[in-house]
Amino acid sequence: MDQGGSRFWQDLETLRKQDLLLPGCVIIADNVLKPGAPLFLWQLCKGAGSREFTTEIISLEEFAMAGVEDWMSVATYHPEAAGARSTSRSAEAPEASKVPKEVLDLEWEAHLVRTMASSPGSVPFEAWAAFSERMKSGMKALGIEPARSMEPRE
C-alpha cells in the first residue's frame, strides 16, 4: 500500500470484507509514520485488525530525506486465528473497535500535512523532520512503535 495513508484501513477492510485476502497474505504499507497512517496502525496493532493480522513495524530513513524517520508496516493475515480466538476475546471485541481520540487527532494532523505537501511550496525539510518526531511520539504514547530498524544504505 502506497496510496494516501488516510485510506489504508478503509481499503484493507474492503479487501477483507469482500473475501479477497488469502490466509497468509502479506500487506506492506509505506509511509505509515510520515505523512502517516495512525488509524491503520492502530487498527492493525490494537484495534479490530489485531485479531486477524500479525504486524511488524520497521523504522527506516525516508527516501531522499537524510535523518528523517519513516515506518513501513508488514502485516500477515491470519483469519483462522481470529476465529479460534473469537470466544476467548469476545469480551474484548467491543473495546477493540473503539478508536481513541488521540488516534483521531494524529490522523487529522497527518491529513493536514498531506494536504500541505500537495500544495504549492510543499513542506520544508525541517517541518517534515519535526512532524515525523511528533507522530513517532504520539504513536509511542499509544503503545505502537517499530520492532526493528533498517540501516540506511551508503
Descriptors for this entry?
single chain, 154 residues, alpha+beta, 7 helices, 16% strand
What does this protein structure show overall?
Helix 6 runs antiparallel to helix 7. 47% of the residues lie in helices and 16% in strands. It has a four-stranded mixed β-sheet. The longest helix is centred in the C-terminal third of the chain and has 17 residues, at 101-117. It is an alpha+beta fold. The protein has one domain (5-149).
Secondary structure layout plus pairing:
Layout: H1 8-17, E1 26-29, H2 32-36, H3 38-45, E2 53-61, E3 69-77, H4 79-89, H5 93-97, H6 101-117, H7 125-141, E4 148-149
Parallel strand pairs: 2-4
Antiparallel strand pairs: 1-3, 2-3
Helix pairs in contact: 6-7
InterPro entries: SAM-dependent_MTases_sf
Task: Provide a concise account of the structure shown.
With 154 residues, this protein is α+β, with helices and mostly antiparallel strands. Helices cover 47% and strands 16% of the residues.
